[in-house]
Specification:
The chain contains 13 helices and 40 strands. It is mainly β and 773 residues long. The chain has a 17-stranded antiparallel sheet that branches. The chain starts with 6 loop residues before the first strand and ends with a strand. About 6% of the residues have low confidence. This is Peptidase S8/S53 domain-containing protein. Belongs to the peptidase S8 family.
Amino acid sequence: MGLVKTLVSKSFARPFIYSIIITSLTACGGGGGSTTPVIPEDDGPVVIYVDDNPLVPVQYAPFGTSTIAGTLEQQSVTNATVAWDAGFKGQGITIGVVDSGVNPNHIEFYDDNGISRINWTDARSIEYNLASDTLIYTNDYRDIDNPDYHGTHVSSIALGREYGVAPEATLLPVNVFLDNSTAYNIAIYEAVDYIASKAPIVNSSISGMVNLSTLGGANSELNDYLTTLTNNTTALVVAAGNEGNAVGAEHFIHYNSAQNLAIQPGIENQVLSVIALDDSGSLASFSNYPGSCSDVTGTPDIACDGTVMSAIQNSFISVPGVTIEAAYGGDTTSTIEYSGTSMATPIVSGGLALLLSSWDQLTIQQAVQILKDTANDTGAYADASLYGVGLMDIAAALTPVGDLKSSALSSTTTSYTLGESSVSIPASLSGLASLAGLKNVAFFDDYSREFLVDITPAIQIEQTPLDWNAFWSNSQPYQINQIELGDYRLSMSFDNLKSSSPLKNFSLQNDRSRFDYMQNSSDDLMQSQLNPLMNLFYSSNQKEFGNTLAMQQALGANLSLFSSMQEQDKNFAKVVNNQNDILAQVQTIGLSYQPSKNWSVALSTQLRKEQDGLMGLQGSGTFSFGESNLSQINSLAVQYSQNGTRIYSQLQQGELLNSQHAAGSYIQVDKAQIGQFKVGIMHKTSAQSAWGLQAYNYNPLIDSELRLTVPTGMSANGEIESQTFSYQQKGSLQPDTIELFYKKGLNNTLQYQFNAIKSPEDSGFGLRLSRIF
């Protein structure tokens, strides 16, 4: 083993003095002597196992459901009950206790069914015999510290049925004391090494286990502990000590003969020293504490370094340690109160067990770091020289650290924070917000711990009031400036109120051809070109599209070809997309045929490219409706006109051709059928007067199937578990919306317009008066 064979005398939580650990089994205070250190032989001691009279705990009758009040200091001050309320009490987690053994028949160590929670198969006693240089293992782990029964009391604080912090954890006791007062430090190390291979938590209410001897070089005590912790994912929780000293200074004062185990590279977050607080929450008078550079007195081996001292302070944590009630090992039911950092240490071990039982995939190093990150370091606890990282707070440790993200750190999937995910959908798809699977979605914090979140509040149902002011502004005519260029006519109109990009549209045409650029245009370019009065309807003038290029070419006396390319207005998107300004692009090509002056027919096909959206569905983050959606929509429009009256109908039908799933999105669009049937009548009575009435189905997404795959948690091996469910929405071409406009001009100077719309989602009316000067 290469350890210094030093006798540990009675007094737990005494400081380390050079290469000698001097501890005591009494809870607080106590002296104790030391023996001359003995340098071990290179091959280490011989290990002997003696299997004589193995202990078997008694079987109690079932107790019934445990009713733990959680009002004890070790439970209430650290907020352990918050973890209990969430169903986590340390179940499935083993705490190894290096101490004086345990009374295996005390009622504290049994579950509600009367079955022992002690791992008595692996429980041991380890004794070192100096004369024969042997380590002796036996099954006799009974608490030998009569009358204090220190090991029973410590174990009860960690995981006792009524008095423990983690009342359903499993106990692995190892007795290292060869009588009721002394033990060799080589036996203590052997116990730590033994437990490290079997349990994630080693509780040692023994001080002097941090500033370890470097005597022996590569075979030193420091290197043996370092090797054990490096080879095992185990945390060593030790007592700060009961001398009221600033023990962090030892690293600098005795730098040449001892090193601080807690700050060794490679074992970060595997060693914690525990400070005791009194009933008022202040540093107990007897408790050791980390201290600061001002505590490095005399002639130290090395000057104090503030960065190193800060790292030492960061390895200490504070919990109650005065008058802690727990099991008394003298019988099977009694309790007793003791004070000391010995009593504080198992509170931290129990807190680690609660965290580990809360998340299966959590490593012990992560659990230690979380306890540090979430400790209460406000007020008096902000003084790291006295309280280390502060007061342990289990409730805070159970809350997310950092931003909640849609995937774990170990996942290669694109991740979004919770606030980055939102969606805007029409009311016809409002059933999406009631899906049970979206009410318990796993998001992950900086330690890949899953937290179940209801994300349905991020689903916005679009039922916004009609914006008549925007409608009047977008639909008003602008003065047209026209220039004759031979056979061509150049027309332009401007919005003089806009200082940037005042050009509204630009048109170049002759008798057979026409080319247009428009800053804004309606969604249905085909119908608006066939019938200019269409833009007087609110629904036809939402200005969904921005930059538009359009072309018309006569192919004969009654036949013409038209095409266009449109990009969505950047200001239109309901949900912000930070990755791409252009969310949609529409390419249209069609034929218009007029067999007589009264009849006209138009056919067109349209390719619609959308990002993070689909036909009015707008999403971002985990609610992206597809990184790239391509839809094809075919249209047939028929119109009859007579004496200024036009009767028209339009049928649109299409489907989603391709949907590329957006990385990190929960939504996959499997199918989408698109359609709209519109029928209406308009009449133009004069250049300034007209009226119109039309009916149509409001939602053009008439049949869609969405597949949602949402994370539900993480398995013990770190794999994200998910649930997949489908959502189907069916609509109809049957009109559910009616819209009316009436426009009247008076004396060529005063005019008014009245519009009304009644739909399943947006209903209202607007009135505008204007005067031309």
